[in-house]
Write a structure and sequence with these properties.
globular, Rossmann fold, eight-stranded parallel β-sheet, alpha/beta, 15 strands, 2 domains, seven-stranded mixed β-sheet, ornithine cyclodeaminase, domain 1
Length: about 325
């Protein structure tokens, strides 16, 4: 008889899943991926022919990791105009499978897990590449991803000040109010220039199609985890900044096509060898991350399927231990 599957809502995950457990899990997964132990098919991205061109996308990401011994499949949607409809701009659902038998183990909301694994990856990037004495964090974007980045990245350095910027200042004020006590670090809502100019670590967490971080704002020694750019028409950093940086990606081939550098490569500002390598190589000690305290480092995280499998494992294990969700038998 097939095992029962666990059904988890976004509310179940938000109330019960500890993001801090995801940071070391994602770090281990990115390192293991570089050893060739996992299976990662290409990400399928579809533009849906509804509404204005470039406003409706769907994607399917799947992956198997030896570390988790699980397979996952995520279906996601992005609708640019959903905010005006009172709906989230992104929605997703994750399925987790036992790889040998094919049994379905869990179905859960995929939007919050995507934010959790992306934030955890941002934290790993900062942990591996930021200066040891980094004490000021700036997060650009106060949506769900920005909120989770505040939580996750705050665990990898002893930050004394956090700046938060959002195009809608009221969103940033609300998030700052919600998280100030939890993080035990002062959170100052600021414009993007003030936040970036004062930061040792910058995390970008937006869906922007226009640069938000200007080159002149970024000091030598800064680290940036750029997490919002996952389509070729998205960009968060001024292209002039990128040649100043030591660039790393979660998966170089994917990042060249739709990461933070993709427009700069298309414009001839960078060539296709612009990345020094992957963050996994840095984790494994195969590649130096920061060579001096004056280096500007960038982790370009477009997101890969093994991260979904890894956060799926984290959620599944906690759901089992805490007896969360609804159990369903499909056969």
């Amino acid at each position: 008889m097939a095992r029962e599957a666990i059904l988890l809502t976004r509310q179940d995950i938000a109330a019960n899943i500890d993001i801090t457990a995801a940071v070391p899990a994602i770090e281990e997964a990115l390192g293991a991926f570089e050893k060739g132990e996992d299976y990662l098919p290409p990400k399928a991205i579809l533009e849906i022919p509804v509404g204005e061109p470039g406003t409706a996308y769907a994607a399917c990401i799947s992956g198997y990791t030896k570390t988790t011994n699980l397979m996952s499949m995520k279906i996601g949607h992005e609708r640019t105009h959903n905010q005006a409809r009172g709906l989230p701009t992104t929605e997703a659902w994750v399925m987790v499978f036992e790889p040998e038998t094919g049994e379905l183990l869990m179905i859960c909301d995929g939007t919050l897990p995507t934010m959790l694994r992306t934030a955890a990856a941002a934290a790993v990037g900062a942990g591996q590449l930021a200066r040891d004495d980094a004490h000021t964090l700036a997060v650009i974007g106060a949506g769900q991803l920005g909120r989770q980045c505040l939580r996750a990245v705050n665990t990898v350095r002893r930050f004394e000040t956090i700046y938060l910027h959002d195009a809608v200042a009221e969103f940033a004020e609300a998030v700052a109010g919600d998280l100030a006590a939890e993080l035990a670090v002062p959170i100052e809502v600021a414009d993007a220039e003030t936040a970036a100019c004062n930061a040792d670590v910058i995390v970008t967490a937006t869906n922007s199609r226009e640069p938000i971080i200007m080159s002149d704002w970024v000091r030598p020694g800064t680290h940036l985890s750029c997490m919002g750019t996952d389509l070729a028409d998205k960009i968060e950093c001024e292209m002039a900044l990128l040649p100043r940086c030591r660039l790393f990606a979660d998966k170089v081939e994917h990042a060249l096509l739709r990461g933070e550098v993709s427009q700069a490569v298309a414009a001839g500002i960078l060539d296709e060898n612009c990345y020094l390598g992957s963050l996994g190589q840095v984790i494994n000690g195969d590649l130096a991350g920061r060579s001096s305290n004056d280096d500007i480092t960038v982790f370009d995280g477009v997101g890969i399927g093994i991260q979904d499998t890894t956060i799926g494992k984290t959620i599944y294990d906690q759901a089992q231990a805490k007896e969360l969700g609804i159990r369903l038998a499909f056969s």
